[in-house]
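[audit] Reproducing an earlier prediction to check determinism. Same input, same settings, fresh worker. If the tokens differ from the archived copy the diff job will pick it up downstream; this log only records the rerun itself.
[audit] input (505 residues):
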Amino acid sequence: MAHNSENPTAHDIRVGKDLLELVSSAMYVEPLTAYREYLQNAADSIDDARRRGLLANDEPGRVEITLDQGSRIVRIRDNGVAIPRAEVVDRLLALGGSSKRGTEARGFRGVGRLAALGYAQYLSFRSRAQGEDVVTEVTWDGRRLRAALADSDSGDLAAVVAAVVDVRAVPARDEPSRFFEVEIGRIVRQRGDRLLAPDAVESYLAQVAPVPFASEFRHAAAIADALRAAGPLGELEVTIDGGAPITRPHRDVVNLGASATEIGELTLIELPGMHGGLAGLGWFAHHDYKGAIPASALVKGVRVRVGNIQVGDHTILEQIFPESRFNSWAVGEVHIFDRRIVPNGRRDQFETNAHYANLVNQLSPIGRDVARRCRTSSMLRSKLRAFELARKDAAERLAIIEQGATSDRARAAEIGRVGQAIGRMRKAMDADAIDEGLHDEMSATVALVEAELARVGGSATIDPLDMIAEDKREAYRQMFNLIYECSANRVAAKSLVDRIIQRLA
């Protein structure tokens, strides 16, 4: 049976203005993600400048960030290829129509450039391509945009964009011969004022941006060499207000708050793709796994990077561990090279497909290994605590025995308890987590305790009460027995008994 139908034409399709709200504020709930979007574009532009010979291989790709708290303005300038004047309008006003799709570029959806507009009164893009004598400016007016979005009578997407965007060309003066700059203007005040807080911006970019490792990280060269073998790192020299270039947060020592842990062994793992080739490369820096790493250390959890830019946060690969809590103990990254493993629009997770599932499945053995290390470390710490508590118990009781102030019966009981403490020390030594060197140290400690027990328990001690009448000594001994029996602190109890004996003397 035939059905009559009329297919829509391009004239029937209307793209609503609310798409602008989606790409300028609704997609980006964390203000600092705007920096990621602009550095991602800068990295692509710098790569392009190298391919065209505009940037020498030994010349760093630079991104200079200026935070003007007084004027509440942020400027982000790079020395990439820039956009020629003839292409500026087409490229900067195309929403969801990036020319990067299908290329090696990091971004390809064409929506990230408006990431900061929801936090500012205006957003300007300035470009000067090589050989041009003007700077082309494209400015989005955030106030006009918000008014248009609230106006039910305003037009469709194209009409609203035309109404809120200004384009002009100004003579180039002191600017570099080639640059692209983003200006986030008159930033609205928010809790924490994170877009303008230098420490917050640097901490974020140290984790997310394609900046180099610090020299204080012993595995920096090994990791960089392994990654370069798979493709260019695309590292950037990123500065804030002319300060020192930002480096990654990894160091040899990780601060755990009350203690610290030192990075030791490094594991590198290649992750093949489903149909050949390299899907990704992971590195994992092992330490003594004393506990969960605090967020303030900036290296907590296994991170994922595409184009050397972090996707999501430290929780993105929790599923590779038998228990998600072990991810908080881990330090490592997975760099994705397979173009079929694609970040989602907000770059906080990946699109679900077989290639991503294959990658995650290959990481599960690493997750189990880290979990095993965590459990082994926990068991070792538990055994060492038990050993130390038993050693301390034995030492305190040996001091009481040597003091000789208690009755013979109490003395015999203390000798027996020291023997029990030695037994607990030996039991704590019996664990697979204790290596040979540590076992030898613990054995030596046990031998010292046994020798001390033989010394103070096997020979008669000088009676500390010999200065008082013999018929009163037993009463004092019973009192001393009660002091030890009723005290929760044997060291304090012994100190009290010592003082009483001194007074009696």
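[audit] rerun output stored. Observation attached for the diff report: The mean pLDDT is 89.
[audit] end
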